[in-house]
Design a protein that fits this description.
Elements (H helix, E strand, L loop, with lengths): L1 H34 L6 H8 L3 H7 L3 H24 L5 H18 L1 H11 L3 H7 L2 H28 L7 H21 L1 E7 L2 E6 L2 H17 L4
Antiparallel strand pairs: 1-2
Helix pairs in contact: 1-2, 1-4, 4-5, 4-6, 4-8, 5-8, 5-9, 5-10, 6-9, 8-9, 9-10
Length: 228
């Protein structure tokens, strides 16, 4: 009986800890969506949950880990959006176009996702290992890979049908993800810089629709006619 009570208390404590962690991540996500990534501070997160910052640090190794696990919540949603976009689309080019379009639409609707993803991509692997626990890094990797799998599966399908000629689908999927994040930042900025004449810069405008079209067209081109 004593062992059962002890196990029960441990299970209850673990459940409370998981619930608190989810509460902190949800609060961080709300702050990201309302203020942006750069303006979200640990004190703000703690206040939003109704706890002090010391309790936040009991659950997470630091700000980078909170950001990483908040990104996981975005990635879980993104994976669902990509799966839904690909569902029932048989033609390989159409499936890839649908997935890239869904990625762009999600990024446009959730600017904080783009900021959070880019902020973590600027860190080296060594830095992330120093600042984020192994379990959190595993969850982050699983979140990213589950989204990339939607792209690589579409590319592999295209190779099987003869529509695509891609030697390394995983590499192209990673490239499309990284370049897509950069293009989404361009869509948000809405500014296109070019030369009006040698040495004379000019600024034009670019719309989200143009960025979406460019990313879809580029993905199809890279899958159909990859560089030598």
């Amino acid at each position: 009986m004593t062992t059962e009570r002890t196990d029960g208390r441990r299970s209850a404590a673990a459940a409370r800890r998981r619930a608190r962690e989810q509460e902190i991540i949800a609060a961080t996500r709300r702050l990201f969506d309302e203020r942006g990534v750069r303006d979200a501070q640990i004190d703000d997160i703690a206040t939003a949950v109704g706890i002090n910052r010391a309790i936040v640090y009991r659950h997470f190794s630091g700000k980078e880990e909170i950001f990483a696990l908040t990104l996981v919540s975005y990635l879980d949603e993104l994976r669902g959006a990509l799966e839904q976009a690909a569902d029932g689309v048989d033609a390989a080019p159409d499936r890839l176009a649908a997935i890239v379009t869904a990625f762009v639409d999600y990024g446009l609707a959730h600017p904080a996702f783009v900021d959070c993803a880019q902020a973590l991509m600027r860190r080296t692997g060594t830095e992330l290992l120093d600042e984020i626990s192994e379990s959190a890094l595993f969850r982050l990797g699983r979140g990213i890979s589950s989204c990339l799998r939607q792209l690589s599966t579409a590319l592999e399908h295209g190779v099987e049908t003869g529509d695509f000629h891609v030697a390394e689908p995983a590499l192209l999927a990673n490239t499309l993800y990284a370049s897509g994040l950069g293009a989404l930042q361009l869509a948000r900025l809405g500014i296109l810089v070019e030369e009006a004449a040698p040495g004379v810069p000019t600024v034009g405008q670019i719309s989200p629709d143009q960025v979406r079209h460019y990313l879809v067209t580029s993905a199809l081109a890279l899958a159909t006619h990859p560089p030598a």
